[in-house]
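Quick note —
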Amino acid sequence: MTGVSDLSNPRADIQRPGGLPTSMRAAVIDETGCPEVLHVSEVDLPIRINAEVLVRVAGAGVNPLDVKTRSGRGVSAAIVSYPCILGQDFSGTVVETPYEGHPLKAGDEVYGMLSAPRGQGSYAEYAAVPAMQLCKKPGRLSLLEAAGVPLAALTAWGMVVDVAKAHEGQRILIHAAAGGVGHFAVQFAAYFGAYVIATSSARNASWLRELGAAEVIDYTSTRFEDAVSRVDVVIDLIGNVHDDTGTRSLQTLRPGGLLINAPTGSWPGVIDDAHALGLRATTYKVSPDASTLTIITRLINSGDVHVHIDEVFELSDAAEAHRRMEEGHTRGKLVINVAEQL
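Predicted structure written out below.
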């Protein structure tokens, strides 16, 4: 019969704008495990619904949470089916918008965050993104540079600005200061006038001072708790997964000082440990908030904030990108080049 949809294939009668394909390349996992479980596969193109924007992905940021989730930790419990596409932050070009008068137009270069693995991630050629989770990328950045910004910068902003309320005269100690979140945290804290003390290896010391750190402590040669005291806030991007960094950080705080811990599961007892010493503590989880990302975009365009991309990997080398992340000591961000033409 003509005019009747193929009920065995609910995607059979989907009309794609501008002759878009019905499938795409993506780095997926069919199970959790070692980096080798990440592989490139052909999967269905996402279907844009309601207020979502269809984006042709150019680059995807690689984050510690991606690595944890792939290994079966992190937020892997939210994976509802396989194959699963990982990746949270991205940059790309708008292909389709929710309606004709939408502020974003086809061809606009954008960036933002996805909520993987509850939904599709950014290690794919296309993504359907809620409009409130993306904005126009900074004009000063290439698409690949922009892909390294959203998750790390939003996390740093939330910890430093929203929770710590960075201001002039405040003393802030930032651990893992040369990493993805850390190098943004240093810049935001300095921008708002705080006195920034950063921990890192010696090779990153001069670079961190250029970003705004007033002091840099080489954690490989100095116990930071012996070198600094009476800070107002600790931005803890390590927790107790390495050398009890979190617990030792409590010794550096003034009475009533605040510790903000971000890495998922890195220090389960942080609140009780801090309260026992008369200190304050909170964990932090990032939100894919485009309104805040728009503010960060202005700071990047004005030259007040910079992103550092340490290494770029092809989509077919996603597993290698995860291995590199697991090695640690990354300066700034790792990015996957998703679009073949870039």
